[in-house]
Amino acid sequence: MYIYEDVGFRPIEIDDLEILRKLHNDMSTLLQLGDIELFSSEQQVVWWKSLINDNVTRRYSIVEVALNKVIGILRVQNISFTNRNCEVGLDILPSYRGKGFGVKSYKMILEYLFLHFNMHMVYLKVGDFNEKAGTLYERIGFVKSGRFKEFLFRDGKYWDYNIYTLLRRDYLKDANMVRRKVI
To answer: What's the rounded Cα separation, in Å, for the pair 63 and 80?
Structure first.
């Protein structure tokens, strides 16, 4: 398990699937995602098995280290090893939201991607309707870099999908992000 303070991530295990499926299908999570398809238990297993052969996608369980309890899912997708960039995202169980686990989880995956996985740029996308998330991403160091106009359909209307990026050099400049030096 990769650990950052009191949170960690590890590959998704079969025992994690039901809690992650419920998180995905929870309305407060589902409507924030690009794809709002609900999943059955059987579909969840098929999805999990499909990750084995996917060279551009990684999914991890986010774990509260002290209790060894799954509290969310971490997405690293659209990985380009040629261009050294990827997209990230995460979802935290509703009962763990607002407790700093999202910020720590983003700091953790950024540390991993920039300092160990050799990424040059990391990006994420968020709908205009989710201003709280945009504020969080900017606080972490992401910069709003562009948008897909009227990309998402939610609540009967189309919303822009904002693109936020963070370059490795900017990550390394921010002393609040880097907690240790690479050997």
So the answer is: 26
- DSSP codes joined into one string, the chain: -EEETTEEEEEPPGGGHHHHHHHHHSHHHHTTSS------HHHHHHHHHHGGG-SS-EEEEEEETTTTEEEEEEEEEEEETTTTEEEEEEEE-GGGTTTTHHHHHHHHHHHHHHHTS--SEEEEEEETT-HHHHHHHHHHT-EEEEEEEEEEEETTEEEEEEEEEEEHHHHHH-TTT--S---
Q: How many CA atoms lie within 13 A of 64 on its CB side?
A: 14
pTM of the complete model = 0.90
Structure confidence at residue 182 (pLDDT): 43
Residue whose structure tokens are 């509260």 = 64
Q: How many residues does the chain have?
A: 183
* CATH architecture of the domain covering 2-173: 3-Layer(aba) Sandwich (3.40)
Counting Cβ atoms within 10 Å, is residue 169 exposed (0-12), middle (13-18) or buried (19+)?
Answer: exposed
Mean pLDDT by 10 residues, the chain (183 residues): 94 95 90 87 92 92 96 96 97 94 95 95 95 92 96 93 96 71 42
CB 89 within 8 A of CB 124: yes
